[in-house]
Give the backbone structure.
Amino acid sequence: MASIAPEPRSNGEACCVRRPTGAKETKHYAELLKALADETRLSIIGLLAAAPGELCVCDIEAHVKHLSQPTISHHLKQLREAGLVTSERRGTWVYYALDMGAVGRLREFVALLGG
């Protein structure tokens, strides 16, 4: 988690503005946002968020019809490496779900912005 330090005012008192203390503390936010900075990956995240549980990769491929299977696999790998989705191989198929820990980290980031 990012440590937050109050920004000092000119009179030396702490201001209510919260700021991450450095790049090291904000790296995991940057990784999440970088993975989300793609229309296809956002679409996949939306699909997984709306699903009642895990989705088979075949269902995801059916949702993203305009892309080839290798391209979809690349996007899923990016999401998995960023910690946004979980995956489990069952025989030939892989099942994906939204990682709720990532949702919590995104909420923390929004809170840093004052939301």
User: Anything to note?
Assistant: DSSP finds five helices and five strands in the chain.
